[in-house]
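Figure 2 data, in text form.
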Amino acid sequence: MRKAICMYSLVCAFVFAFLMPHNAQAVEPLTGEFTVNDAGLKVQFAPGNLQYMPGKDTWRFAPSQTDYADVNEAYFNDNPGYSEVIDLFPWGADYGACIGEGWRMLTDEEWQYLLREEELGSGPENAGQATIGTQHGLMLVPDGWVEFATLTFEPSANNWTTNVYTTDNWTELEKSGVVFLPCAEEMGMYWSATPNGQSKAYCMYFTTGSIAANTPDERIKSFSIRLVKEVKGEPTEVEEMTNDGVRMMDKVLHDGQMLIVRDGKRYTVTGTEVR
């Protein structure tokens, strides 16, 4: 039986109270790299969903990618003495600060790009529903991932029975950079960092038969959070661009992406600023 209902309404003050500085673990992201915009920005995912341990007043990542307690603040309030983990939270854009510098949530646009929602058709080619042991969730394969000869992956799977792996299978897949987003029973809801009006925000949603990268929902509802870190590569080539001998801008090849650098800011060749 589920300990709490994911859609349970919460008091917004919960976010701000818990976003104060607390103890948090220092941990490295997973090895897989995922491109999340047209400028070639890459991110690496945290090794588990965000969790808060009220008994220790500590933020952490779940011990494994398949770990899912399905507990929100309402359950904590209704059960005095509960001190294990909370892993469902109302919306907030700054949950990365709970863990440390560099961690952040994906934006709505980045979720859409990652899952190629504009090209869905039968579904994204880098994501598919999967079952690891008994845990259901969404599996994401990183850029350039090569399928194992003995561990196949069927992208766009919209059920829990196509991509089924043992825990030993999963150990090997995880080493190759694969990401797994666990869900509560038959549904997964993950917040983005992007608000939608005064009372809503966008989330990434998946369940049997469907996936959506930009679903708006009420901020007070309790959803999962998986943080990311940006991959910081160094420019590999710089070409100065001048006009009548006056330096105007630099053309930079950065992680295989051509960018224009002017007045300290980076732009794609189409003029979009890269932040």
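Caption note: The mean pLDDT is 81.
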